[in-house]
Inverse folding.
């Protein structure tokens, strides 16, 4: 039996969701003072770059942008075997910053927990907020996104895939059913 795919956000929908999230971030934080974006590799880092561009367009200020690799913070390393370790690149101090952690899909919450552990090892942010393009439910940890592009209730066996073009711009989100 082959998998079926349904487009749940096309490129225009992804762009609208990211623009709305950028406005919500600015509204909640009352601007960009002490604000920084950190994307989770890979996918969240591309979306964080898109949010940075939108915030810059709105506020005429570039907020700091970083990326975090969570490989060594995963709680399932033994089950997954050898995973390639990526690069964490946060070129600014985290202390006192309002960090918006960005990921593409929120599912169990374990990736977010690992990312928060990595951030805390690097400094002491004033707060960590979470922005995701898709929230598909099925939490295993008490984690909730502050900013959500779209809620997509899914079955456990389904998957959500965000597709990026060659320049790392998100072009669509698909629900994949087995």
């Amino acid at each position: 039996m082959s998998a079926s795919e349904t487009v749940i956000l096309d490129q225009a929908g992804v762009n609208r969701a990211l623009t709305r999230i950028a406005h919500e971030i600015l509204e909640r934080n009352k601007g960009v003072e002490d604000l920084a974006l950190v994307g989770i590799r890979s996918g969240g880092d591309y979306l964080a770059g898109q949010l940075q561009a939108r915030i810059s367009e709105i506020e005429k200020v570039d907020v700091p942008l970083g990326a975090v690799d969570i490989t060594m913070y995963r709680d399932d390393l033994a089950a997954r075997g050898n995973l390639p370790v990526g690069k964490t690149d946060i070129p600014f101090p985290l202390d006192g910053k309002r960090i918006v952690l960005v990921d593409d899909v929120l599912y169990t919450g374990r990736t977010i927990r690992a990312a928060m552990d990595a951030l805390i090892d690097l400094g002491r942010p004033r707060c960590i907020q979470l922005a995701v393009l898709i929230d598909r439910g099925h939490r295993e940890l008490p984690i909730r996104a502050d900013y959500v592009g779209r809620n997509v209730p899914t079955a456990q066996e389904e998957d959500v895939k965000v597709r990026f073009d060659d320049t790392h711009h998100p072009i669509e989100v698909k629900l994949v059913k087995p």
Notes: The chain has one domain: 11-74+86-156. The two ends are 8 Å apart (CA to CA).
